[in-house]
Amino acid sequence: MICLQLWRAVPTERRLAWCLVLYLASLILVSMTGKSDAENLPPVKIVAFGTSLTARGGWQPGLQTRLAACLQRPVSVESVAKSGETSTWALTQLDRVLAEQPDIILIELYANDATLHRFVSLAQSRKNIGEILDRLHQRLPRARIILMAMNPFSGLRGLIRPFVDSYILVHQAEAQKRGLEFVDHRPGWERLSPDDLAAAIPDGAHPRPEVASKIIVPELVGHIAGPGCGE
């Protein structure tokens, strides 16, 4: 009724301009409302769970930034990781992961299991990762659980892990048996020349963060958000 009265009060020759002003105002209001809704979405919470390849990885900030831009919503990435630890240690850290109530859990827990001096057999590693996956999935049934294979090892770091590929395979098999996801970053590293690879991983185990980000982040963003998003 008020709108009708206002319409009648506007001189006929000005009604077109008045309509245009109202139309533009409505477009601005819709645009501002859409932006507010996007900003008010809760963040996508990610926990990276692993060894020094996570604790010292340096790829988490890039993942957070690029995934947020791709999804058009906030993203937070936290780490539960410790250098030198194994899947046996990881079994004692599940409450820390669960406390974050993540939407996505990224897991790499094979690298130190595979070292000769830590005495985690292939069978024990497989049992551990199976228990980790079961407990996480039971407590967080809606979370995406993604196992990862990371970078290659070389030099002494490679020599003490002669069967690392077998450890990766059994972790992958346990994920697939449960219908969970697996992302293999090794092909990205294999595309580097031998000299570039040596420069990227100078100690034979821990990549430079800037190079790790270039290889790991696009792969994860594309896997999480869909093809084309990580490019």
TrEMBL record:
Note whether Lipid metabolism occurs among the keywords: no
List, alphabetically, the Pfam families matched. Lipase_GDSL
Instruction: Please provide, alphabetically and separated by semicolons, the GO molecular function terms listed in this UniProt record.
Output: hydrolase activity
What InterPro entries would the database entry show? Ester_Hydrolysis_Enzymes, GDSL, SGNH_hydro_sf
Give yes or no: UniProt keyword Hydrolase: yes
Q: Which UniProt keywords apply?
A: Hydrolase
Please, which domain of life does this record's source organism belong to?
Bacteria
User: Gene3D superfamilies, alphabetically?
Assistant: SGNH hydrolase
| Protein name, UniProt field | SGNH/GDSL hydrolase family protein
Q: Which organism is it from?
A: Rhizobium bangladeshense
Recite the lineage of the species: Bacteria, Pseudomonadati, Pseudomonadota, Alphaproteobacteria, Hyphomicrobiales
